[in-house]
Amino acid sequence: MSARVNLFDNAIAAKFGKRFANAAMVIAQSPLPKATQELVSLRASQINGCGFCTDMHTKDATAAGETQTRLNLVAVWREATVFTDAERAALAFTEEGTRLADHHRGVTDETWAEVTKHHDDDQVAALICQVALINAANRINVIARTPAGAYEPGMFAEFAD
């Protein structure tokens, strides 16, 4: 598969990408656990069918020390015993926040209660931003047909200020 457009060589996309990377840094530096950030990004990317982001977040999670078992089970997290209650709440939140059109109501009160039970206000804010950001990234890459497989952890570090 080849990309419809090379977003890395386009001046407008590169300018946007720099701001996107800066927004991602805000979340990366938040108190939301890095493992949760990567699991959330991976799950949303799976749902949205974004190969590029699935590749990226699998590799970033591995580089950060995530186990292959947990990565293999993200898509079936409800049936898996390897996730904490806080991670399970974040994954439920991610699915509901990603499948807005399917739910016709967004995140349920039950899921919100679970998320706020396990995460403080700063972590919840970061989680909301993470779900929004990864969904935007998924849409950009799916529309552009950015191919998966060539991502290397840290390759976008130069985009952030």
From TrEMBL:
Q: Which UniProt keywords apply?
A: Oxidoreductase, Peroxidase
A Gene Ontology molecular-function term? peroxiredoxin activity
Question: Which residues does the UniProt record annotate as the domain Carboxymuconolactone decarboxylase-like?
Answer: 16-96
Question: Which Pfam family is an annotated match for this chain, by its short name?
Answer: CMD
**Leader sequence residues:** none
**PANTHER family, alphabetized:** 4-CARBOXYMUCONOLACTONE DECARBOXYLASE FAMILY PROTEIN (AFU_ORTHOLOGUE AFUA_6G11590) (PTHR34846), BLL7811 PROTEIN (PTHR34846:SF7)
Q: Kindly provide the name given to this protein in its UniProt entry.
A: AhpD family alkylhydroperoxidase
Organism taxonomic ancestry = Bacteria, Bacillati, Actinomycetota, Actinomycetes, Pseudonocardiales
